[in-house]
Amino acid sequence: MEKLIEKYYRPRLPHIWCPGCGNGIVTSSIIKAIDKLGLDQDKTVIVSGIGCSSRASGYLNFDTVHSLHGRALPVATGIKLADPELNVIVITGDGDGTAIGGNHFIHTARRNINLTVILFNNNIYGMTGGQYSPLTPTDSKATTAPYGTLERAFDIAELAKAAGATYVARGTAFHANMLVDVIAKGISHDGFSLIEAVTQCPIYFGRQNKKGDASAMLKTQRDNAVTVEAAKKLSPEQLEGKFKIGVLHQSEAPEYTKQYQGIIDRAQKGAK
Amino acid sequence: MAIKTIGKHCKGCGVCVTFCPKQVLGLDALGKITIVDETKCITCKQCEMRCPDYAIFVEKK
């Protein structure tokens, strides 16, 4: 890991994330996946939005864009269309990607453009002080919901699948090695890939909801996560309150940049 | 094995101490990572894998 830090991180550590924040673990999983696949650092672009998770792009030694709030996906789409040879990896958070960027999210999934999106799900807007996000579980406390949230949370994996994503996976900060595998598979997949990385926010989510410290929240991830294979053998009652991890969905569909090249070729030939 | 810690990176969250199966690690008076007994280390690298702050590295010799 120390060598990976020298190779792939900018010399500006320590990072600004709170003590016990899982974002550092997820970021290192992304780096391990990139290293495992041997991606060329000069041919890999990391795009992020705004938020705690999106700070990650500033620490990584690639061509990076720290874009606008919720707008990481349109920026990434532009980069990918300009040069489809690039590996474009998007780092976003639950608030950034599913609230203000929710519309971009479903339409980028629908287009099936070859991007890899790693959505850090910490269940809260951490950077701005703990407001609830579309992925905050019902009845959780937040600074904007002192008596608990009324809204139901998105199942972002199901949403992505319904919107047309061709690779959907989930991992956790606790299962860091498995997260490396699902991210690596997502980068290799030819099409829109979403990886939901469940991470802990012990300060703004954990403290308000009495979830304990970072270690306790990691143990909660360990106890509540069920692999896709194990989930097949369990009854719906046994799966109550649990969430599945692993590759949740994979399918084939035409990839957008390849189809776009087809349009360019046809237009240049003058065909109608 | 060799355990390397970087105090400057450590924020004292205690994740490494919790997940170490052999009680090799501890926190010092300032709340930073410290090695209690290096001889017990089995190089499972649970600490390195889960350290959110890149403050601990374990090398097999």
TrEMBL record, chain A:
Gene3D superfamilies: 3.40.50.970. PANTHER family: 2-OXOGLUTARATE OXIDOREDUCTASE SUBUNIT KORB-RELATED, 2-OXOGLUTARATE SYNTHASE SUBUNIT KORB. CDD domains: TPP_OGFOR. Residues 50-196 form the Thiamine pyrophosphate enzyme TPP-binding domain. Keywords: Oxidoreductase. This is Thiamine pyrophosphate TPP-binding domain-containing protein. One of its GO terms (molecular function) is thiamine pyrophosphate binding. The keyword Oxidoreductase applies. The keyword Oxidoreductase applies. One of its GO terms (biological process) is cellular respiration. Pfam families: TPP_enzyme_C (PF02775). Coiled coil: none annotated. It comes from Pelosinus fermentans B4. InterPro entries: 2-oxoacid:Fd_oxidoreductase (IPR051457), THDP-binding (IPR029061), TPP_enzyme_TPP-bd (IPR011766).
